[in-house]
Specification:
The complex is a heterodimer of chains A (258) and B (270). With 258 residues, chain A is mainly α. Chain A has one domain. Chain A is 74% helix and 0% strand. Chain A has 13 helices and no strands. In chain A, helix 4 crosses helix 11. Chain A is globular, with a radius of gyration of 19 Å. Chain A starts with a helix and ends with a helix. With 270 residues, chain B is α/β, with parallel strands linked by helices. Chain B has two domains: 188 residues, Rossmann fold; 75 residues, rRNA adenine dimethylase, C-terminal domain (Helicase, Ruva Protein, domain 3), CATH 1.10.8. In chain B, strand 8 and strand 9 form a beta hairpin. The longest helix of chain B is centred in the C-terminal third of the chain and has 16 residues. The N and C termini of chain B lie far apart (50 Å). Classes of the chains: A mainly alpha (258), B alpha/beta (270).
Amino acid sequence: MFSNVIELYRCRVLIVSLVLKEVKLRYYGSVLGFLWTFLNPLLLMCVYTIVFSTFLRIKVENYPVFLFCGLIPWVWFSTSILEGADSIIRGGDLITRVLFPPQVLPTVTVFSNMINFVFSLPILFIFLLLFKVKIGGALIALPIVMIIQAVFTMGLVLMVSALNVHFRDIQHILGNLIIMWFFTTPILYPMTSIPANLKFISRINPMATLIKAYRDILFYRQFPNWLLLGITLCFGFLVFFLGNLVFNRYKESFPEEV
Amino acid sequence: MVAIKLENVSKIFFRQPLKRKYTTLRETLLHYFDWLKNKEKARYVEAIKDISLSIERGESVGIIGMNGSGKSTLLKLLAGIYKPDSGKVYVKGRVASLIGVGIGFHPGFTGRENIFINGIILGLSKKEIKRRFDDIVKFAELEDYIDEPVRTYSDGMFMRLGFSIATNVDPDILLIDEILAVGDEYFGHKCAEKIAEFRRLGKTMVIVSHQLEAIEKWCDRVVWLNDGMIREIGIPSKVIDSYRNAIAQKEGKIPLEIRSSEAKLRVPTP
């Protein structure tokens, strides 16, 4: 596990420049370019708001903002997983023709999506102001929640990216799995609307705890439940550890299998 | 001093069933059952078979052989991209591999941006790239286009830039795989000069090429690989001659020199 972390630290310059490249490239060639970084989550929010506050009528005050608080961290998570899954395969020549530390590629997907998440925060703040939800002092807890999410996501992405090189079914299964995960995580609806006998699902779902924490900080202006976050962090480290194990198990075979 | 040392190195590739571009879980399971049923059936190819070789510092070694003889695999083992299945590979010094040039280039970025990204991929620090930036651009002769996106470059310009970055890494050991023909005749000469300069500077080089004349000119020693094994090793002219003869024989033409030398051999028997 530590060998990977040390290696990642050693090539931090490489990671930073590749992350910047990804961020710049995401909307490369489109007319609106960088503006899409803001427009995309905005449009996504509009779609869900129309469906869930007009058609399905979820009763939450300031629903668009409520939704947005949960949606943007989720987009960071899900896009990282889906892009990360085939990051090694997409690496192509980098893996097969130069001596390149493969763990850099999944790391870059997680961090470039984190940058996109950070870029959509200003829109969120504008919305908070528009809906007259004040921005609270709990905001200082935000980086901590982000770190926990980053650790957990890194672990998962390392795992799926390595496995996907050998079993390319994974990227196809993942698409559906992520949708399932999305709907079972309280993003579109509040935690309170889950039936009591199903509450355990969101207890064992680390994303539910994280989304709840984001919402506490941004929407309810209160500090999150530190105990639950602590447990999630431990679980995140466990997943990170497992991800590294899986990745190290397969990494030498990448140049032959990609 | 030894720069590269291979000790009984072998590399095995698992033979992949036809159409198996994408492995699926089901296929893997079936594959496993197949394997249980007939274990003795060899499903692998030994691309490099028990090779031992040592290369001195400052020496340039050419690797020749037919397609599929394991030349590129050997080079990738030296570059550290492949790990040997058995045996050991020792490499001392900074390695630059010209196995692929222009890797990690993105067409939407300018030449300048690509130099930085590619340089970092090849293991340079930002400072080092800044220091060498002008040399890289000058060598590629792209001064006027360096701030244009790479997608507007011609293939030749693209290759020139890639080659220029790779050779400016300032390596101790240079691994070259069949890219001596980059760009036009003019740039080809420049590359040749660059390689000659590397030789003068006492860099260790391993060159894989089918251009036998170039190998003969640049190398101190030549390794002829055949079917993953060293068939012959020695001074370039000799090894290349026997390699050419082997090819001629395969084509069914027995070259004159061989016939005459064989004839000579037969004559003295009383």
